[in-house]
Amino acid sequence: MPGRYESQLKTYRDISSFFPKVAREYVQGAARVFSSVFGLTDRTAARYASHRRNSQPKGVKQAIQTVRKLAEQGHEESLFALAEIEMYGKYGSALELDLAFEHYQQLADISGNATAQYMLGLFYAVGLGSTEQQNGMSLLYTTLSAIQGYIPAEATLAFKYLSGIGVPVSCNKALSYYQSVARKAIQYYNSGPVMGRHMPDYRARLSDDNGGAYGVRTGPYSLHKVVNRKSFDELLLYHQQNALKGDIKASMTLVDLFYHGHRFAPRNFALALKYLRQVNTHLFTQQGELRKGLVQSEVNAAAQAAGMYGIMCLRGEGQPVDTAAALKWLKIGAKMGHGISYNALGVMYQAGIEVPPNRDRAIELFKLAAERRHQGGQVNFALAIIDAMPEIAHENLRKAAEKGHILAHYHLAELYSGVAELFSGVNGAEMQCRMAVASYKFVAEYGDWLHSPIPSAATAYQQGRLDAAALSYMQAAEMGYGVGQLNAAQLLETAARRNAKSSAEAAGQIGNGNVDAKSNVEDGQATAVASLWSLFKTREAHVRQTLAYWTRAANQDMPDARVKQGDHYFYGQGVEQSSEKAAAAYTIAAEVDANGLAMWNLGWMYEHGIGVQRDFFLAKRWYDKSIEVNDGGKLANYASLARLCVKYVWAWLSGDDVGESPLFFAPRPVTQEEEDRAQAEAGADGREGQVRNINHYEGDNYVPDDWEHGAGALDTEDMDADEEPAEEDESLSGNLFFIALFLAAGWMFLPFR
């Protein structure tokens, strides 16, 4: 992602939160007044649109004018091309959503074009441009498009019925649409080379490239480790130099990189084959025998290299298809016990490629691959024995699905949907339906070669066209992509934050009489972000849609989204202000996602009694937990603990109810029942080291690793505060030190009389 626009995507809290509560409403109102009176955002967006039109080459302008004239005559292809140009700002044009809507409408009326109907449904679903949001009209046009088999429309309807967006929740209807999308995806997957097509590219979360949704890491799951372009280039050069020196590990790393591709290094079979041949030359003789004197790591690399080379020969990747060479190298890999080689060799025996068809031999090879936990082998073995041994087949499909194998998800979905249809109306059918929908949804979203709007969104973002990127991400969001919802929400919120900032800056310029009409046009970052504001008719619609996407992203476990949802409720942005709902959202984020910022928010709310009943002990508990999971917020948390101590003492001196025991300076008395329980647990063999930390909660679908936790691990997710291990003694000295430090600092600034 380009660094030029990264800083614009860091979203922060409303600055009015730093003002007293009585003044907060006036501060927010002042920003809105400046924006509406002086038209700052509209002016900036208009100048940006004018700048883009003026920068078009003369030939492009003439071509667009020709298309426009043909469209006026009712030429269908020209209508469609013109609508796409106006919708996404293609060829250097500015977005003109209202004109795009008119041309899509005209095209849909003339020929019932499925794409045009789908786009009209998108306009009504989101409320783009001057179009009013109407769920009924959105459902009508999207359904008309889906009837014609248009995949994005089918995916959109599936998510609507799954989530109840503008329609009653219906698992059966969601199943029907997701099944249609998934079957088309698998058909396309199987239409590729032997063993199927490569999966689509990775979907980047914009928050990862910009330090998280809040610009900082807020918890263990809020931010993926991201390598920037400079670091990637340095790492690539390092491996290339080591590969030239004959480093086998570096060469295999480069093989894997160029074979599977990376967002900074597109898939390149020729380069992968080049490094693979270097490895084979180093490790094998011309007769295909292992060279003598190899260490175990080199033997392992040799097995992997033989299997990879055999597969590339079989699939014709980087070279023409060579089934004889594929058979030779796959046999070498299989002889060395390589799972990939077993599976590919089994495919050759199953299909009769270069060898006579032999189903029994194929099943034997698939079984060997499955025993080595190769996902393709598990799927092929399951499909081969599903009639004879359905339970073993199901177990292998489940294991492969857990690793994200698309065929495993598809065949599990087919099994679940068949059971749901067979036992329709019987207890348990609904559960089977939901399991089928979950797997079909996985196939539809991860096997989206034919219908994904995310690649075009990523391209637009890289080019700095944030308005077009936001539109494509919103399209993905309506189709149910969690990453689309997250990225759309972040881009839309960027515009809102930038608008408030621009209003404040412009107010200062106007007050000083220094308004420069060219300044915003010359600032590429400001104009690109301001263009997002023109996507909706009103500020309220913009903020309301932002909240909708944060909420949907939160429901799909996207990082920081639940905290953002809580922020909208807390500040009343796009929804009626509700501190209670904000506290509920923060609680989910804190307990399920171990989000440190949500924990701090809860501590603050319990400290002040906002949205929850005032409770000093729970406030301290959440501050302490925030310290544990968020190293970057320790200073703020210790400052909050110091303030909490002062408030606690003041409340105690004032005679308020502060609980039965001191907050910081003594542990809570232990009851006899708790002491007996602790002694019983301490006597159990092997229990002491198996308590899972509540702050490492993995979600409802988490399966504990047998090697990590062991049998009989204790589940402490729902453990009450009173039942937790007493950790206050260990952190007591640290708390007291920082509390004393802050109190001393405050005392130094007190005026002496």
Task: Please specify the SSE layout and strand pairing.
Layout: H1 3-6, H2 21-38, H3 40-54, H4 58-72, H5 76-88, H6 97-111, H7 114-126, H8 135-147, H9 151-163, H10 171-190, H11 206-209, H12 229-244, H13 248-260, H14 269-283, H15 296-315, H16 323-335, H17 339-351, H18 359-371, H19 375-385, H20 390-402, H21 406-422, H22 429-446, H23 454-462, H24 466-478, H25 482-512, H26 519-522, H27 524-530, H28 539-555, H29 561-571, H30 579-593, H31 596-608, H32 616-629, H33 634-653, H34 672-683, H35 706-709, H36 728-748
Helix pairs in contact: 2-25, 3-27, 4-5, 5-6, 6-7, 7-8, 8-9, 9-10, 10-21, 10-22, 12-13, 13-14, 14-15, 15-16, 16-17, 17-18, 18-19, 19-20, 20-21, 21-22, 23-24, 24-25, 25-28, 28-29, 29-30, 30-31, 31-32, 32-33, 33-36
Distance between the termini: 58 Å
Query: Largest sheet, if any?
Result: none
**What's the total number of strands?**
0
Q: What is the number of helical segments per DSSP (H or I, 4+ residues)?
A: 36
Shape: globular
The amount of helix comes to 55-70%
Structural class per helix/strand content?
A: mainly alpha
Radius of gyration: 30 Å
Strand content: under 5%
In the predicted model, the low-confidence regions spanning at least 5 consecutive residues are 1-18, 31-45, 502-522, 683-732, 748-753
* Average pLDDT reading: 81
